[in-house]
Specification:
By secondary structure, the protein is mainly beta. The chain folds into two domains: 83 residues, Glycoprotein, Type 4 Pilin; 71 residues, RNA polymerase II/Efflux pump adaptor protein, barrel-sandwich hybrid domain (OB fold (Dihydrolipoamide Acetyltransferase, E2P), Beta Barrel), CATH 2.40.50.100. The chain is 7% helix and 60% strand. The protein is built from one helix and 16 strands. Strands 1-2-3-4-5-6-7-8 form an eight-stranded antiparallel barrel. A four-stranded antiparallel sheet has the order 9-16-14-11, with no helix packed on it. It has a four-stranded antiparallel sheet with strand order 13-12-10-15, with no helix packed on it. Strand 6 and strand 7 form a beta hairpin. The longest helix has 11 residues. It is elongated. The mean pLDDT is 87.
């Protein structure tokens, strides 16, 4: 499985797999390690990395992990590749005027904002029903709603303008 770790602001690729003997192989950047992990308590684990034993105290809050290893404190974020791509795409182009468009045909279930409303990044803007599922479309940035291009109950095509946030 592939991950992206953010350590001191630097993105580091991490992958976890098995070798032919069934050993767990963890690759961090371009360094490969044979690792055995055993949880001894809910936040304490025993690691065997390349034959050397470590006791690690780890506290996690969603994607942020705080680690105490041999008296040293470390902090890092860890995302699977899919989540990292979603996080990256949410941040791309979030400056200036944002035109939020429908990614597929559907029906507008509810407009959650009106023109002139102030919104926060990640705040719900509109609920679209597509393929029998309701999807809340969220704001890519904090700003002001400049235009609501749809009405509740309206059918929309893929690419239809839903909301403009500036």
């Amino acid at each position: 499985m592939a991950y992206i770790a953010i350590i001191d602001g630097e993105k580091v690729p991490v992958s976890i797999g098995k070798d032919q003997e069934g050993n767990t192989i963890v690759t961090v950047g371009n360094r490969e390690h044979v690792v055995d992990v055993r949880w001894t308590q809910s936040d304490l684990l025993s690691l065997l990395i390349d034959g050397r034993s470590y006791q690690v105290d780890i506290h996690s809050d969603k994607d942020l992990h705080r680690v105490l290893l041999e008296g040293n404190h470390f902090e890092f974020e860890l995302f699977d590749e899919r989540k990292a791509l979603l996080k990256k795409s949410a941040a791309i182009g979030a400056e200036g005027v944002q035109e939020i468009k429908s990614s597929m045909p559907g029906k507008i279930v509810k407009a959650l904002v009106a023109e002139g409303d102030e919104v926060e990044q990640g705040q719900g803007l509109v609920v679209v029903e597509a393929m029998k599922m309701e999807n809340e479309i969220k704001s890519p940035k904090a700003g002001v709603v400049k235009k609501v291009g749809v009405k509740e109950g309206e059918a929309v095509e893929a690419g239809a303008l839903l909301i403009v946030v500036e």
